[in-house]
Records
---
Amino acid sequence: MDPNAPIGVFDSGLGGLTVARAIRAALPDEQLVYLGDTARVPYGTRSAHTVIRYARSCAAHLERRGIKALVVACNTVSAVALDFLRVELDVPVLGVIEPGARAGVAATRTGKLGVIATRGTIASGAYIRAVASIRSRVEVFGQPAPLLVPLAEEGWITGEVPERAVERYLEPLAAQGVDALVLGCTHYPLLRPVIEAVGQRVLGPSLSLADGAEATAAELAELLEARELRAAGPGGLELLVTDLPDRFAEVASRFLGEDVEEIDVHQVDL
Amino acid sequence: MDPNAPIGVFDSGLGGLTVARAIRAALPDEQLVYLGDTARVPYGTRSAHTVIRYARSCAAHLERRGIKALVVACNTVSAVALDFLRVELDVPVLGVIEPGARAGVAATRTGKLGVIATRGTIASGAYIRAVASIRSRVEVFGQPAPLLVPLAEEGWITGEVPERAVERYLEPLAAQGVDALVLGCTHYPLLRPVIEAVGQRVLGPSLSLADGAEATAAELAELLEARELRAAGPGGLELLVTDLPDRFAEVASRFLGEDVEEIDVHQVDL
């Protein structure tokens, strides 16, 4: 395997760009190819059968581009399809749930870990399984927080509406003694300041946040290091989308944290 | 054409069930076949090319079931694809935008009409064109209110979060002298009490709301009457979906205003 081959990153849409952003910050010498399946977003409301079918077609497209590793920057796909992809692909496959769960376990001292995510991710039990699989005794309290997704996409990330929404979602966790909270959805890092401020008020001032995007980037760096697959640079990013939605540049730039007008964007058919 | 043939109703997802609900209330003797393209929802963020392609496949499926009329219970499709469908189908085709615009024009006395809808519907200019096409001098002020869609789907239809969101959306209309407001998205009737209460505070106590779903049902009744296509009964409803999403029964029941467990639901491939 060529260490200078690109890293594939895919998501149902543009939310996974927060993961691409974290990878770019941690591994600035790597070439990334990001595929957002914007024609079929969102996956979160699809059946597992459909999600697996879509995930396979995304992974196969990236594999044909000669990637050296695949990051599934989508909680829904990570929860449902990761095992299928690991069997089928010849390159290492990393999801966002296992790194997020490990970061959450490391962050809690009470042993009570909250996870906020979409309804589908919570219902899948993926975080509970991931915490159990690292032989941790930490107890997981899942809380669906679906409205934070459109709030992040709209850019309503400060002010009363997101504050009241976060408050309403975190209140049920207050009785559980939770002292660490995993941001279990790629959209949530945009709301991190509100989640942190409201969380410390509702759940206590010692609350720690664990960001699945950052944790995934850190595990990817370790994996590449261990397999001697670190690229020599220069790093870069190519964006592939299956549809060019309205406000693409605005929303993509917000998630990526840089102006996508400066980046190569191509539309592909899967 | 057989007057006892069913009426086809389609939408990108489940929001159009508010239109089916209004039709059932206005025309209780009619058989409805509702098709929700839940595998490809939402259309609002897709390109016009993609929306037209999807709309054609939905309409063709319903036409094969022998419908006597087609109601496009989706603002995005009504804005983008109605002319194509009218050319291609042999049955009358009704959208939700023209009836909503007519109801709005009838409701305003100041001649300043607000329209709240998704970003795509507002950007399409469809309500401005619809108002102009009825030779009205009413001025249209479009305001995207995209977060009201997930709020309706989540069932967050009372309390501070929807109140603050509606307030934030309506405030820009306050300076325009708007005295009537079209609910230009199939999801919004669920939030009607909040929109009415906040609207009367922000836009003035004489504010009238025009509901596109009710207006469409009323125009459909006139159309069937004029063409002698009223069914003899008994009425009924069959639900077709292209995917069975999570929480289908809960969300569908909320939009339809009755328990979908009591209704025939079939999954179809388009």
---
Amino acid sequence: MEVSNQVTRLPDGVFPAGCPSRVVLDHVTSKWGVLVLVALSEGTHRWGELRRRAEGVSEKMLAQTLKTLERDGLVHREAHPVIPPHVDYRLTEMGQGLAALLVPLVAWVFDHADAIVGENT
Amino acid sequence: MEVSNQVTRLPDGVFPAGCPSRVVLDHVTSKWGVLVLVALSEGTHRWGELRRRAEGVSEKMLAQTLKTLERDGLVHREAHPVIPPHVDYRLTEMGQGLAALLVPLVAWVFDHADAIVGENT
């Protein structure tokens, strides 16, 4: 199958265990990582808004997910020095590049999920 | 951020827990699901070849992953009636549509993984 996007070829088709790309792939395709990145693709969000979007995420898992994505340089966290405290999250430029590829994927899943789950029943 | 692909808008930005799309999203973004789908995007593969591509996958996890993707209608399994037994896996048409979105994502991760992991150290 031909993919028309301008992308680097995958190195000889093998996904070597223990290489950085596997670590990063796990982060960005994690259950909550995907949902957080897609939610932030629409713009800056506060913590509570992210919790609402990724329905079912626990406080602990959301904190862990955001911390990982922040450490990866994909999400920027900004704490505003106001009372009550106010913390914003947004995508970095690199995060935006990634989200541009994730959003169509998630939209595809939304479009096809009913048909797919229908096949299972 | 604007995404130029022609995709259905996500429903009001919320990812409801327990809806089919969340189940399917978990399947297609699972650790081994991604690697198997991307490997099959290049064509038909046999079991052993898939194990080699997704380095580190156990027999059990590969079997489980392929079974899930087959039940989802994304992968087609074909057993040839020969001796010794010979089983092929390939993407269905729907699986190809999905893989066309997954391949650029994985390629992006390959391109950026070193920079990202570098930020962590």
